[in-house]
Automatic annotation (TrEMBL):
SUPFAM superfamilies: FAD/NAD(P)-binding domain, FMN-linked oxidoreductases. Residues 756-766 have a biased composition (Basic and acidic residues). Its EC number is 1.14.13.40. This is Anthraniloyl-CoA monooxygenase.
């Protein structure tokens, strides 16, 4: 087979060495337009797992790399005159120039034809001449551009600027320095890569960059030239960090990170590798790691499969899940740094934990495994801020308004579709009672509707008749009489999403018969299958507002401890907030201020009807997941408006507003929205913020609470899986949480097994570090 490799970086060279080892008869040519000793950048970072793969694949390369490594276990966070150190992280780095030298030498030993100072043929020319073209031509890949119709790339340029430098200051750990400068917040990412030098990256938000460097930064530089004026200013700004040491440049210039994604990595006999196919932000040290893992997997798949089509399909099937996971973590990390300014009010201990867990790959439990002493210090600090005993963060008490909660766990509102004429049944008594017995601090009802025509389905509960009120009183009496939990009611109106089937008969699908007329701010159906709602008149808005107030009075009589106003998920109040569903031209439509008018009127009416000593929260959709809809900036202003009207908390969900939405699902995928609102609005107004959305482990709850990204965590499906989830989480963590006396015999966990999902605890140490082809790699073998 004749193989053309376009690009002589780590990805291209490493692939060439592995493919040549497996098939010495292959003719492999690598094109690299730079000289052999030209390289840009400084240190490259590897995890222990990636190094294990390299060792299996080619012990010669691994041995040469190992002799060059600078290793560290600690991460130091320098913030506001303090240093917090977390150990047990186990990474290694080396000079990028030496890595390329090792790979070049190995190519020469194996007979790979590497052509330096030579422009590669075009992708079209190479694909016609060679059996396989491996495009390892970087983030600005000409190959990806040439076949963009097939690869369908998307490039997202981010909002921070950074510059990559080196220093003769040899760091003894990975270093995060947060600098508070006259221009704004800046951050340094630093790590050693040899016994004489370290990588030194300065990153800052584009607004801060404009103030600090906008007037002096070079607008055009020749290839290989560095921005010396900026670097001179950096030396002054970072003088305290450098302590007399030098920074040096190597093609160092300001850039904004571009996240590259492609719909596919293959066009006929052309395949993308490394940064040409995908990028992941440098703050999780993943670029060279991903590229070399790609190379390993591609070489292995070509060896294992009987034909090229199968090999390229196997390569992408194997690598895409790994890359997607890494990109998700990298996205969380880069967004954290973009929003760094919203965390600088935090205590240095909390800030250190926050920065360490920013990507959600490192967690509370994970840090406890790596560095128990550090974890204990954090627990002690958090307890001291609450004047409480030391315990896992999720079990620290919390006060929302004037209501005391025994812990931070909330059973999220979940529609059960099991009421009869709006009356909750024995099902609700058992369902909600079991969740309260299970240890959660706050149990929420499903959305309880304020009128018969405000129901979603015929099975939805209500609070508009005396019989309904009495039935709910039976539930609250049980919770109060048998558990320490509090119980809240969520009030709402279905709006344009009403008159539909029970969920299990067809979610959001219209009833085959017995439909009732639905209403909305504008006459826009939820989907082509749904009814077109009637646009509400101002008089009808006043009637609905009073229905909410009357239901609030009934909820108080029914004994609920907390009331939540449902302004999310595309129901009536949510439909007023979103410009996608509110096209009114009167005072209730148009600007965000006008779209907020009716939800705020309802809030004020409910707040006046609801007892002053009982808290009231609002659930919002922080994004519509659709262009032109609500985004996080709007959500901040919506949360601010409700806070100013007296809300005690904001429950931050997302989506379900339009049927065309395109959510970005993933673990804890909605929590960044809660994080933003908590650290802007929650802090400013002293109100609680509740995070919700694919939170399924006690580790995630502890991590979110301790990092200050939320005050409470609401879990839904998790409680359907295990009604005693909170009790079990306490047992797993060794926390002596009191169990109901009737359950006391079960409080001592039987031998064997665990209750917090399928992953053994020790595996958390490698959470997210998904293996690749290296696990099966044996050069010269069939498998």
């Amino acid at each position: 087979m004749r193989i053309a490799v376009l690009g002589g970086g780590p990805a291209g060279l490493y692939f060439a060495t592995l493919a040549k080892q497996l098939h010495p008869e292959h003719e492999i040519t690598v094109w690299e337009r730079n000289a052999p000793d030209d390289t840009f950048g400084f240190g490259v970072v590897f995890s222990d797992e990636t190094l294990g793969g390299i060792e299996h694949a080619d012990p010669v390369i691994h041995a040469a790399m190992r002799r060059e490594f600078a290793r560290w276990d600690d991460i130091d966070v320098h913030f506001r005159g303090t240093v917090h150190t977390s150990g047990g992280h186990g990474f290694a780095a080396m000079s990028r120039k030496r890595l390329l030298g090792i790979l070049q030498e190995r190519c020469a030993e194996l007979g790979v034809d590497v052509r330096f100072r030579t422009e590669a043929p075009s992708a079209a020319e190479a694909s016609a001449e060679y059996d396989l073209v491996v495009a390892a031509d970087g983030v600005n890949s000409p190959t990806r551009a040439a076949f963009a119709g097939s690869f369908r790339p998307s490039l997202q340029t981010r909002r921070c600027k950074y510059i990559w430098l080196g220093t003769d200051l040899v760091f003894d750990a990975f270093k995060f320095y947060v600098l508070e400068t006259p221009h704004g917040i800046m951050q340094i990412h630093g790590y050693p890569y040899s016994d004489t030098a370290s990588t030194f990256i300065l990153e800052l938000h584009e607004d801060v960059w404009q103030r600090a460097f906008g007037e002096i930064a070079a607008t055009s530089l020749a290839p290989g030239e560095s921005d010396e004026k900026s670097i001179e200013v950096i030396r002054e700004l970072c003088a305290d960090v450098l302590g007399g040491h030098q920074v040096f440049a190597n093609n160092s210039k300001w850039t904004a990170f571009a996240t590259v994604r492609c719909a596919t990595w293959r066009h006929e006999n052309v395949v993308l590798l490394g940064d040409a196919a995908h990028t992941a932000h440098f703050s999780i040290g993943s670029g060279t790691k991903l590229a070399m893992e790609d190379a390993l997997a591609l070489a292995a798949c070509l060896h294992e499969q009987s034909d090229m089509d199968s090999a390229l399909a196997a390569y992408e099937a194997e690598r895409r899940p790994v890359v997607t996971s890494t990109q998700r973590a990298a996205q969380a990390s880069l967004e954290w740094f973009e929003n760094l300014g919203q965390y600088t009010h935090q205590d240095p201990a909390q800030f250190a934990f926050n920065i360490l867990t920013r990507s959600r790959r490192v967690t509370y439990d994970n840090l406890r495994l790596r560095d128990p002493e550090f974890a204990d210090e954090l627990d002690t600090w958090f307890a001291s801020t609450l004047d409480s005993e030391v315990r896992p963060p999720m079990f620290q008490p919390f006060r929302i308004g004037k209501l005391d909660l025994p812990n931070r766990v909330v059973v999220s509102p979940m529609d059960m579709y099991s009421s009869e004429d709006g009356v909750p049944t024995d099902f609700h008594l058992v369902h909600l009672g079991s969740k309260a017995l299970g240890g959660a601090g706050l149990v929420m009802t499903e959305m309880v509707c304020v009128s018969e025509t405000g129901r979603i389905t015929p099975g939805c509960g209500g609070l508009y008749t005396e019989k309904q009120e009495q039935a709910w009183r039976r539930v609250t009496d049980f919770v109060h009489g048998h558990t320490p939990a509090r119980i809240g009611v969520q009030l709402g109106h279905s709006g344009r999403k009403g008159s539909t089937k029970l969920m299990w008969d067809g979610i959001d699908q219209p009833l085959p018969e017995g439909n009732w007329e639905i209403c909305a701010p504008s006459a826009i159906p939820y989907s082509e299958a749904n009814q077109t709602p009637r646009e509400l008149t101002v008089t009808e808005l006043q009637e609905i507002r009073e229905q909410f107030a009357e239901s609030a009075r009934a909820a108080a009589r029914a004994g609920f401890d907390l009331l939540e106003l449902h302004c999310a998920h595309g129901y009536l109040l949510s439909s007023f907030l979103s410009p996608l569903t509110n096209r009114r031209t009167d005072e209730y439509g148009g600007s965000l201020e006008n779209r907020l008018r009716f939800p705020l009127e309802v809030f004020d009416a409910v707040r006046a009807a609801w007892p002053a000593e009982r808290p009231m929260t609002v659930r919002i959709s922080a994004t519509d997941w659709y262009d032109g809809g609500i985004d996080v900036d709007d959500a901040v202003e919506i949360a601010r408006a409700f806070a100013e009207h007296g809300a005690d908390g904001i429950d931050v969900s997302t989506g379900q507003v339009v049927s065309e939405e395109k959510p970005e699902y993933g673990r804890s995928y909605q929590t960044p929205y809660a994080d933003r609102i908590r650290n802007e609005i929650g802090r400013e107004y002293g109100i609680a913020v509740i995070a919700v959305g694919a939170i399924s482990s006690y580790d995630d709850v502890n991590s979110l609470i301790l990092a200050g990204r939320a005050d409470l965590c609401a879990l839904g499906r998790t409680h359907l899986y295990d009604p005693q989830w909170t009790l079990h989480a306490a047992a797993e963590q060794g926390y002596p949480m009191p169990w109901p006396k009737q359950f006391a015999a079960g409080s001592r966990k039987p031998q064997g097994g665990r209750t917090d999902g399928p992953k053994p605890r020790l595996e958390l140490l490698r959470s997210g570090e998904t293996g690749t082809a290296h696990a099966r790699w044996r050069p010269g073998s069939d498998r």
